[in-house]
Fold:
Amino acid sequence: MSEETPHRKRPSGLGRGLSSLLGEVEQEAPVSGAAPRGGIQMLSVSSIEPHPHQPRRYFDEEALAELGESIRSRGLIQPIVVRPFGQGYQIVAGERRWRAAQKARLHEIPALVRDFDDVETLEVSIVENIQRQDLNAIEEAEAYKRLIDEFGHTQEALGRLVHKSRSHVANLLRLLDLPEKVRGYVASGELDMGHARALIKSDDPEALALEVINRDLSVRETEKLVRAGKPKKPRPGPVAHKDAHADIEALERQLGDMLGLRVKITHRPDGGTVALGYSSLDQLDMICQRLSGEKI
Structure:
C-alpha cells in the first residue's frame, strides 16, 4: 500500500501522545452554542452519534449504570471529544461517557470539537482507550490492523503511537489468526491475552479454549495443555530447575502483555531483579506513571 493516498492524509500527530493529538485545550468554562472549534462547548446529546468503527465494541452494562448514577449526581466532569459530522457531531473519544450521560438523562454534555480526519480519529480513539485500559486484546488488535491495512502504518509506528514495544503490537496482531469463537472468548473476558497467545500454537484452539474456560485454567496450565498435544522434541540433556524457569518465563510474558514492554526477570535463591525495557522517553514516562499510580 502506498504511504500516501489522495483521500487519506498522513496524520500529523503520529507518536506524539494523546495530549499532542488533541492539542492544547483552554481551561475555561464550556459554553452553549457554536463556540470556536477547538474549545469546549455544551452540545445536545441527541446531536452526537457514535463512530461506527471505533475500537471499543464491548460496554459493561452494570459499569455503565454505575457511571450514569455518578454523572447524575455530579455531572459529566470530563468532556468527550467529537468532530463535525453531517448536521451534528461524531464521537472521537468518550463513547462510554456519552452512553452513561444518556442513562443519567442529561440533555447537554461538555465536548471538545476538533476537525479530525479518519486516521486521526482512529488514532485518538485508540490512544485514549489504551491509556484508560478500556480495550480488550482483540479490540486493540483489530484497531491496529485497520491502521496498518487502511492507512499504511507500520508496527514500529504503532508502537510509538501507543508507547509500547513493536513485539507487543506484533503479538496482538497474531491473535487475529485465532478462530472467531476463540476471539469472542477473549473479547468477552473469558480468556485473557496470555491464554490466547498459548492457544495460537494449538491444533484445535476452539476445543482447548472451552477446556481452559470450563476448568478455569491459568495461563501456565494452558501452555502445558497445548504442549501436551504436540509431539515431544528430544532435549539435549536435563535442564536444572526446569519448572522454575518455565514459571519465570510465563511470568515475563504475562507482565509483558500487561505493560506492552519487554520484561526480564532474574531470580536467585536470595532474591532477584525485574527489568523493564523501554525504547523511548514516552515509554519511560508510562512506566513511571504506572509505578507511581498517577493517572495516565
